[in-house]
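pasting input
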Amino acid sequence: MASYYKEGVLKDGTRVILRPMVKEDREKLLDFFGRLEERELSFLRNDVRDPAVIDAWVSHINYQRVYPLLAEVEGRIVGDATLHMRKVGWKRHLGNVRVVVARDFQGRGLGTLLINEIVDLAGEFGLEKLVAEIHFQAPAALAVFKKAGFSVKAVFEDLVKDPAGRSSDLVVMVCDVHGREGRA
Amino acid sequence: MRLAVISDIHSNYEALQSVLAQIDLEGLEGILNLGDLVGYNASPNECLELMQERPMWHLAGNHDLALLEPERAQHFNIIAYQALMWARQQVRSHHLDFLRTLPLTRELEGCLACHGTPTSPDAYISYHFQGKRVLSYLAKDSPFRLCFFGHTHRRALWYRDVRGKVALQPISPGKIILDPDCHYLINPGSVGQPRDGNPEAAYAVFDARESSIHFKSVPYDVDKAQNRILAAGLPPFLADRLAEGI
């Protein structure tokens, strides 16, 4: 169990525990990703149903490189947001954000809660801007990131493909971390 | 009066000791603390005791207020929240009484002092529009030409000239003479958790007589402060950041 956590509340009053991923989360993560539908899996970068992928994640946790923030309800993981950072180079002030929310928790404010928390953490880590790459066929994700203060900066036409081989656009959204009023 | 301006000590006892020792060496006549005595680091009681040992002018910061009213910490990010909750368990009750007495703003030597902005300890002055807003308030709706603020953990010297132009003045290493025709916002940086890339404990010296500001910093025992954080079980990032000044 992570040594620290915070409680959040969804639109319907459901209380959610927010905490960083720890190595003991292996089984819970496999359960979480195992419940995702094929279409949702097609938007992810890794084969998260492969236990070897999850094993690699939980055994190589480095919060200064990737900060994995989990949302948990009654012991079950219902959301996973990751903040990817670089210590050096021309993108060292940037962070990349990825978010996955369980189907039965979509539309309840969990995505917004996770992204808001990631934006606040980015400020704490000294990042200046956050970048999210979103498939154009994922309108719910586009809406959630927009609600959290991200705006569309670029659209790459026909850049990405779904598992069936159909081309689609990739949307790049950016959030100015310090442009939002900070809270800590 | 030559005044030491300090801010955002955040329970870093080693950094505070170094800054106070340097202030004593310089023979400064007063100390203005812009708030956030607690939070983030692991020595809240030691810092609170040290700060009450001598007369100085204090303000409340948003972490000080969250220690008294934990619901305010709900808006903190998970790392800041955890550190604040830990501090709530540690701080002795008589120190809470002291924190309850702290004002949000203060007038001193003809200057205004606040933690975040004159109207909110939570709001930031980081961007041009934020500096412009507060400088416009100073110029049009207050009798003050200078305002000290903290909260961002970064040294800053904002000015508004007679034409209304607002800009950041570079922080030069020596004493900076302030233009009598300009309005200024002055941030001394952070004692206990600097975030401008310089890990030394930051403070500033304001000379009211000659109207100058001198931004300074002193090294301190970062290893010891880090070890306290790790021993307390606080998020390790809070220890790592001290060495980098982020």
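fyi Chain A touches chain B through 23 residues (CB under 8 Å).
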